[in-house]
Amino acid sequence: MPPDETRPATPFEEPRRSLLISSLPREATVSIALFAAVWQIMSYLAPTLGIPAFAIPGLGRIAKSLATITPLDVAVTLGRVLLSLVVSFAIGVAVAIVMYLSESVEKYLRPMVRILMAVPVVSWILFAVLWFKGVEFRIVFVLVVVCAPVFTVDALDNMREVSKELKQMIRSFRPTSLQFFHKLMLPAITPGLITSWKITLSLAIRVVTIAELVGAVTGIGHQLSVAQELFSVADVFAWTLVLVVLLFFLEALLVRLETRVLRWRA
Fold this sequence. Notes:
Number of domains: 2
CATH architecture of the largest domain: Orthogonal Bundle
CATH topology of the largest domain: MetI-like fold
Structural class: mainly alpha
Oligomer: single chain
Strand content: under 5%
Number of helices: 10
Radius of gyration: 24 Å
């Protein structure tokens, strides 16, 4: 039913409306404008500070570099990230379910998961180069081995936090294991899983560029490597800006999905 436009707004609705409409966009715009102004000033002062002029390019040079961005490289990197995250999520949640169902299995797997999380990304890249020949498989392998443990730990912790009363109530109806997870556990851990996606998404964006530096001939990481070899700081800044915008875009999609899936919490 559409809201009654003649009804006066309550004291709780007006602050919420003004907050959503004005505060965040204004603050974000001011922050970005200040950063751009400081960067432009630093580009002018760089020679006097003993910094090479090319090391801090002006906004005009960065804009020219942005105009040369190749959409194919952006699409390739985005595809690698999304594919790896989907695979990581499936593996991570599956392992978390197995660990939740069996305490003995958890005792053996949890230390291994912690070990995987402790290994640096650079080490995984070196292992991937030594173990696999396919460049695409190397990149996906590095992303999955870094992101899947995060999904596992988050999913398992969220399962543990479901109240015992709810579990006992559901089990009183004698559900199957599939019904137990479908009717109770999945809805209960969905908010935590979405939060885990937000965290892992930013992690994947950072890791994919490093993985693409080794052997890849396409993608944002490869273009960053080329820009580094050419000492083109403007290109490095432009591709970095593309990564930031890509992350914000994907996070915005996750927020919209969260709002839709968790509308029952409103």
